[in-house]
Design brief:
Elements (H helix, E strand, L loop, with lengths): L3 E7 L4 E3 L9 H11 L3 E5 H6 L9 E5 L11 E3 L2 H7 L6 E3 L3 H7 L5 E7 L7 E2 L8 E6 L3 E2 L6 E9 L1
Parallel strand pairs: 1-6, 1-7, 3-4, 3-6, 4-5
Antiparallel strand pairs: 2-8, 7-11, 9-11, 10-11
The structure holds NADP nicotinamide-adenine-dinucleotide phosphate (NAP).
The site of NADP nicotinamide-adenine-dinucleotide phosphate has 27 residues, from strand 1, strand 2, strand 3, helix 2 and helix 4.
């Protein structure tokens, strides 16, 4: 698997979700997600798939990881193991790993790049992104801090590459 990128939005404690939902709604972050992933392949775990309000995500090849062998969902590709995923992802084009926690935990060890939106607040959560090891990951860019008009949440966009 080449050219793998993680895309995630995290709170101050690396929290990413609760009760199989996101912790915030920041429309500029959703636009950022859309801009980066449109036309590309996105890979997600079955719980994240179930959490999506609208699916499949349009203009993207949606791949869902599930161990349920009989699971079939129209219009998307289901894979049952990382080994099967490897056989599918033979392209050099950027592929986006879009969570959730179980998927990030595996792919943080092999991804080449991470698009991380930082939300400058603590949230009550039950799912977390793994620790980002500064010896392995180098921050290449960070945007200015923005404030979401609706929620007043501060957020910024960071990009990391593997050292
Ligand atoms: N903040 C963000 O950017 C962000 C992004 C994405 C998700 N989230 C949040 O994260 C939470 C969901 O995360 P999660 O960790 O509970 O679930 P998840 O990673 O989305 O999905 C877990 C499921 O994926 C399947 N799976 C995992 N590893 C697999 C493997 N190696 N082979 C085959 N199938 C595999 C299994 O599905 P089966 O049970 O069907 O076997 C497993 O139960 C939600 O709250 C969601 O809103 C946040």
């Amino acid at each position: 698997m080449k050219n793998l990128s993680i895309i995630v939005a995290v709170g101050k404690n690396l929290e990413i979700g609760k009760d199989n939902q996101l912790l915030w709604h920041i429309s500029e972050d959703l636009k950022y997600f859309k801009k980066n992933t449109s036309g590309k392949t996105i890979v997600m775990g079955h719980n994240t798939w179930k959490s999506l309000p609208f699916k499949p995500l349009p203009n993207r090849k949606n791949i869902v990881l599930s161990r349920q062998k009989d699971l079939q969902i129209e219009g998307i590709t289901i894979v049952h193991s990382i080994e099967d995923l490897k056989k599918l992802l033979i392209t050099n084009e950027e592929t986006f790993i879009m969570g959730g926690a179980t998927i990030y935990k595996y792919f943080i060890n092999i991804a080449d790049k991470m698009y991380i939106t930082r939300v400058n607040q603590n949230f009550d959560a039950d799912t977390f992104f793994p620790e980002i090891d500064g010896k392995i990951w180098k921050k290449n860019s960070q945007s200015e801090w923005f404030t979401d008009e609706k929620t007043n949440l501060e957020y910024c966009f960071e990009i990391y590459t593997r050292n």
